[in-house]
Write a structure and sequence with these properties.
alpha+beta, 55 strands, 12 helices
Length: 827
């Protein structure tokens, strides 16, 4: 009887789905169909239908159900002829300009499909203007790009190009539903230089977003993401507006009044006679069901075209000494003292980096060790840090040079003059190093070779580089601001080497795409909770809001760097004018950052942390490097309350869902005051199988949330400034792993394998264990099973079962891999 029962269980296990897919599978794509006539070109995919009107030079895009998505869109160019000061506008729409088009098959690194190019000849400018579409067989988006070819004998200067423009004055617009005022629009930074202000606005507010924007209609569920996926030379913006009395109605829906995707050049880009120039590539994706799919597709597309190699490198963890009471008083002695403290308490738990911040150098521009503070040189302190098992990291601002530095005195011709805006925004005593100057470029190259290869710093944080974009002109007269900026960054990347992890503080962030491994997301964090709103808001909440609103770029284009968090050490009030974080606030921040798989740093000295603070920090280390969380209520809450991470570890998959009560919050209806809140986690939002059963365990609450269907939900009641992380596993018919107390992913960083033997009724879990930690595993045991024996690494463990939840515990004294063996019986 016993053998036959086990055979029955073997059959059940073989037939029962044992893996939890990260997201539900989507239907197979349909091939493109192309129809051409003398008046139009029609291209149809499973996601949209595109129609180009050849007579008018405009295009429409429809949803799969035939409703309008884009109407009467067109491209436009603004160019300035040689000797003139005012740019001339050249729209693709209207006019009697001759147009020629071609449709052809293409294959590029991202897929295959059909290309459509339309050329316009302008006799007055003696130039050919072209806009180019790419429609992919297997991708849900299309791209469009502008180009200009100068066929004259004099140069032209390109002021800007707009691959897409739709406006009510021409009968056009973007259509998502009946009332654009109810739409929610996610920007990606605001008006270029307010890039740290990532807004979520209603349809009634003008949109001026850096790089890309997401439009979502909560009534229809339809969304659109438009944005540039190359960023080599231009300032990039997506702009939109809606006014009911200046909008177009179609099929009972109403369109936005204006929609513009702008690729602009400062200074204007010269195009010499016989040469051509092209805009950045614009991504356009409609989605009938989810704004997240479109945002993530944009992130994937941008990342594929701008690879930096970040995914092959360990994600940095550490501290910002600048934020501590040391501030600029860094010395060899206090750096090594903190490194030794981190070695004892955190290194074995995943603290990988030890960074030396601002204050190590002689002057900004004279990048050698201050001999009074670092008498053994920067190579000497790096060697000691490396000897403790850390990767040395260093801070630098290579493009901003002090007027009092030796570099400024000796090479005054290496610096770019500031524009009027640059004079207003940048520090008066900083000069802008011009990387287009050959000698300055060589100096920059030599500097980063020395830092990375001679000194041995393999994590390099580069700050204040955005001021270089504010130059009036550059040594290379053909270089735009973005080109000069990226030329300098590429010199740094090549000199530092591909093994260096480069973190940028860039504004706008896209200017570092494809070069940076890590990207800062906003202003410096203070130990302030940060309930203030507006573009200068600082603190924990504003930074985490940016982390959520830029989630789709994380682990696709770079690793996000949400600055640092504070654990409430006693030094904070003196450093930050009386402000001090609480442990609950630190838990909120650390949980969100850990679920995001982001760069994790603290703003306290390691020497000043107490055991409770160290224990909390350990639960976030090391960084889970496979993916980042999706904030599923991103378009509903100012500070999202549900962050969903798909975890893949030990041969299994599960969800680690962070639930948060941020205190004061906002939803589309208005302000939500700080009070106890019930946060619901919907199986539909997590894209669970509605026909399956799931079980859930809370990490911080240490509680079993029970069993629920994939079509249902679970609820967590949270006080203000309280969080939990809920592990959600698909239910199995036998004992199964549910959670570990080591890390908030509940196994994502430490579980190496999970196996169930249906013949011996044994659950085996292989876990990477760190030194001096009280490990506990949580196992779900269905009715009818009974634990007979539990061991870990050959040693007996403590076991306690309440209902269907089994907890097994052991104390780890040193780092090793432990195999937990749990043997069960079944009548």
């Amino acid at each position: 009887m016993k053998i036959s029962t086990r055979l029955v269980f073997l059959l059940i296990v073989c037939l029962f789905p044992c893996a939890l897919p990260a997201r539900r599978a989507t239907a197979a794509p349909q091939p493109l169909t192309v129809t051409e006539s003398a008046a139009a070109v029609r291209i149809k995919s499973a996601h949209y239908e595109f129609v180009l009107n050849l007579d008018q030079g405009i295009w429409d895009v429809q949803w799969p159900d035939g409703r309008p998505f884009l109407r009467k869109a067109f491209a436009t160019w603004r160019v300035t002829p040689q000797g003139e000061t005012d740019a001339v506008s050249v729209p693709s729409a209207g006019g009697a300009r001759p147009r020629k088009h071609e449709v052809f098959a293409f294959l590029d690194p991202w897929g295959k499909g059909r290309a459509l190019n339309i050329g316009i000849w302008d006799a007055a400018l003696n130039a050919r203007f072209e806009y180019r579409f790419r429609f992919y067989d297997d991708l849900p988006y299309f791209t469009v790009q502008c180009a200009v070819e100068n066929r004259g004998t004099k140069s032209l200067r390109v002021a800007d190009m707009e691959p897409l423009r739709a406006e009510a004055q021409r009968g056009g617009g973007l259509f998502l539903g009946a009332d654009p005022a109810r739409a929610r629009i996610l920007e990606n930074g605001h008006k270029l230089y307010m890039d740290f202000w990532v807004r979520l606005v209603s349809g009634t507010e003008p949109v001026n977003s850096n790089w890309n924007a997401a439009f979502h209609d909560p009534d229809t569920g339809r969304s659109a993401v438009l944005g540039f996926i190359t960023m080599e030379s231009a300032f990039l913006q997506v702009r939109a507006s809606y006014q009911e009395n200046d909008s177009v109605a179609a099929d009972s829906w109403r369109g936005f009044s204006t929609l513009r995707a702008v690729s602009s050049y400062q200074p204007e880009k010269p195009v010499q006679a016989g040469k051509s120039w092209q805009s950045e590539v614009l991504f356009v994706m409609p989605d009938m069901k989810s704004p997240f799919r479109a945002l993530e597709a944009f992130g994937e597309a941008a990342g594929a075209r701008n690879p930096s190699g970040f995914e092959t490198k360990p994600i940095p963890t550490g501290w910002n000494a600048w934020a501590t009471s040391l501030h600029h008083g860094l010395t060899h002695r206090n750096m090594i003292a903190n490194a030794k403290s981190a070695t004892v308490s955190l290194r074995d738990f995943g603290m990988r980096t030890f960074q030396i911040d601002d204050g190590w150098m002689i002057a900004h521009g004279d990048w050698e060790a201050d001999p009074a503070r670092f008498p053994r040189g920067m190579d000497g302190v790096a060697a000691e840090i490396r000897g403790m098992g850390f990767t040395p990291g260093i801070w630098i601002q290579p493009f901003c040079v002090s007027v009092d530095s030796a570099l400024a005195r000796e090479h005054p011709d290496w610096f770019a003059p500031k524009s009027k805006q640059g004079q207003e925004l940048s520090p008066k005593d900083w000069l802008l190093l011009d990387p287009t100057h050959p000698e300055a470029a060589q100096w920059l190259r030599d500097l980063f070779r020395r830092i990375s290869h001679d000194w041995g710093y393999k994590v390099i944080k580069i700050d204040f580089i955005y001021y270089l974009l504010l130059a009036e002109r550059y040594h290379d007269p053909d270089a735009t601001a973005v080109e000069a900026f990226r030329r300098g960054l590429r010199i740094i990347r090549e000199a530092a080497g591909e093994d260096a992890f480069i973190i940028l503080v860039a504004v706008p962030t896209y200017t570092g795409a494809g070069i940076a491994d890590g990207m800062r997301l906003g202003l410096d964090i203070t130990p302030d909770w940060g309930d203030d709103e507006g573009y200068l808001a600082q603190g924990v909440k504003p930074m985490l809001r940016n982390l959520a609103r830029r989630y789709y770029l994380n682990h696709r284009l770079w690793i996000s760097h949400p600055d640092m968090f504070y654990l409430g050490s006693p030094e904070e009030p003196a450093r930050w004018e009386g402000k001090q974080a609480t442990l609950a606030q630190a838990r909120m921040y650390g949980t969100a950052v850990a679920l995001s798989g982001a760069i994790t740093k603290i703003g306290d000295q390691f020497l000043n942390l107490n055991p409770e603070q160290i224990d909390l920090l350990r639960r976030f280390l090391p960084v889970y490097s496979k993916a980042g969380a999706r904030p599923v209520d991103l378009f509903e809450m100012q500070y999202p309350q549900v962050w969903d991470l798909s975890v893949d570890a030990g041969g299994e998959q599960w969800h680690a869902v962070g639930v948060f009560n941020w205190g004061r919050n906002r939803n589309p209806e208005g302000l939500v005051e700080a009070t106890d809140t019930v946060v619901a986690v919907s199986g539909e939002d997590l894209e669970l199988d509605p026909g399956a059963q799931y079980i859930a365990w809370g990490f911080w609450s240490d509680r079993f949330y029970g069993q629920f269907p994939g079509s249902g939900q679970i609820q967590a009641r949270l006080a203000p400034i309280e969080t939990d992380v809920i592990a959600i596993h698909r239910l199995k018919p036998h004992p199964q792993f549910l959670s570990t107390n080591r890390h908030v992913t509940q196994g994502g960083t430490d579980i190496e394998s999970i196996s169930w033997d249906p013949l011996s009724l044994t659950l085996e879990i292989r876990q990477k264990c760190d030194s001096i930690f009280p490990y506990a595993l949580t196992v779900h045991v269905p009715d009818g099973f009974k634990l007979e024996k539990a061991a870990a690494g050959g040693a007996t463990v403590q076991a306690e079962q309440r209902g269907r939840i089994l907890r097994v515990r052991r104390q780890s004294l040193f780092s090793n891999t432990v195999v937990w063996t749990l043997e069960f019986s079944h009548p």
